[in-house]
Design a protein that fits this description.
Length: 135
Amino acid sequence: MIKTLLKQIGEYKKDTIITPIFTILEVVAELLVPFVIASLIDKGIEAGNLRNVYLYGALMIVLAFFGLVFGILAGRFAASASAGFACNLRQSMFENIQTFSFSNIDKFSTAGLVTRMTTDVTNMQMAFRCACASL
């Protein structure tokens, strides 16, 4: 079943791969801030060097900016990948339902099929988005 779902990624492979990269870069930028603060305190404030205080303060602003940009890009690519995945999944399900015989259509209610194509696919989309962003 996982193989079948992975086929639905289709043309959104690039977005699926780029999302964790930007997420990792965002986390790295956020994790560097405490080290910069430690350096600011040790080499700037305690040493009484105002130049280092400004330097490390500017570095913290740059790290925060890059963290913000990487976070926005990760969210954008995760949304694109998950929406494309859901679109492809709905299309594949619709094509499969079109091959059903009348006896199969009687066996599965129309309401049940519509629910599968909306609610279940939306749940898969949200799960894919979370999985994509947390890799």
